[in-house]
Each structure stands twice: as structure tokens, then as C-alpha cells.
Amino acid sequence: MRRAYFDNFLDRTLMTYSVQSRRNILVAGAAALAGAALAVPRFARADEARMVTPSQGLGPFYPYGPEIERDADLVTVKGGTGVAKGDITLLSGRVLDARGRPVSGVMVEIWQCDAFGRYHHPRDARNAPLDPNFQGYGVVTTGADGAYRFRTIKPVPYPGRTPHIHFRIAGRDIPYLVTQMYIAGFPQNDGDFLLKSILDPKARDSLLVRFEPIAGAPELAARFDITLANNGTLRRG
Ligand SMILES: [Fe+2]
Questions:
Q1: pTM higher than 0.85, yes or no?
Q2: Structural domain includes residue 157
Q3: How many domains does the chain have?
């Protein structure tokens, strides 16, 4: 049942992106026409540079090991007894270049602690329970539209950190990016040493994500678009 909903989420997400990109084309087309009529070219908007997603450190809990499940569903594990604890969240977004063009075929990895604030990593030896149904790690490849999507949980705080999800973007011909996304408006954000280390407020805001209910569904939705710096060799969808 949940799997069916997740699949449906993927379909609906793709549909939304396709509608949005058609809308962007229409807007760009209208702007170009208006510019022509006034003899003032207005091609800049579609080509304007976006805020490049700031990088953050990899941290001590980047997952490794042959036993790691490599899929997009973090809330069930092979041989598990059920679904992970926490607020199940459908996390999606796109990987874009600095001009807003989708970057396809690149690997997006995420990792985060479970609902008890514990990483499934040998280095996390804190005395907290471990949720056996939380995978803690996910990986997907972006589609032609640059989109990625995961089913995971809304992150929770652990000692010394405001809630966050780690991201790593890697692929041929793209700038390597490691970063973290945060919950918009979470009270501990202001005191988080890593979030505060980004001094530009706009860059900091670009890592803040809203977690919102989905009408008629038990999951939350969160959307985080990632913008890579242009290096002139990005493959585009
Ligand atoms: Fe972390």
C-alpha cells in the first residue's frame, strides 16, 4: 500500500515538473515577445544565474560498507519488522546548473540519523536506541529532468545539531557537492554552528526546506532543489 503510494508520488512529481517546465517555457517565450515589441531584449531572466547551493562538510557519519541498501526508500529495510519511526516524508527536488537547467544522470546520496537521533554508523556510539527499520542512507540517479526523490523521515535534532539531512552529489563532469538541508523555521537553526558558518543569509536560506502535509495522505512533503556551480562541462537533460 505504502509502496504503491510512493510510486504514485513519483509519477505525480514527474507530472508537476513537466507542467512547471512548460510554464517556464511559456513565461520565457512571453518575455522574449514583449522584449521584441519594445525593442528591448529581455533574454536575461531565463539565463540569470541562480544561487549556487553552498557546500557543507561530509561529517563523521557518511555511510560505508557492503551491507548498505542502495535504494530511495529509507523507511523500510530488508528483513525489517515494519516501517521506520518518525514523520514519513516524501523528499524530492531537482539538480540544476547555475542557469536552472536540469542536470541528469548524477548520483544523489542522502544520510541522516533515525527518529531517536542515532546514526546507523559504527562511529555513532551514543547511548540511544536504534530504529531497526530505518535505513539511514539512500541513493538515486537524477532523471532527464534532473529530478530525484526519496521516502525518508523528517529529520530530528541530536546533541549539538539542529535537524538536517546530509546530501552528496557526484557524477562525471560535474562539480562535486556535499551539503546539508535543514527544516525552515526550526528553533535550533539559529544556534547551529554549521548552519551559522554560512555567512551569506541568502545562501543559508537556500538550505532551509519546508516540510508540509500532503492532502489526503499521511506523509509530509519536502522539496529541495540543488544548484551546482557551472564549470562549463555539465551534462544537461
Ligand atoms: Fe549529521
A1: no
A2: yes
A3: 1
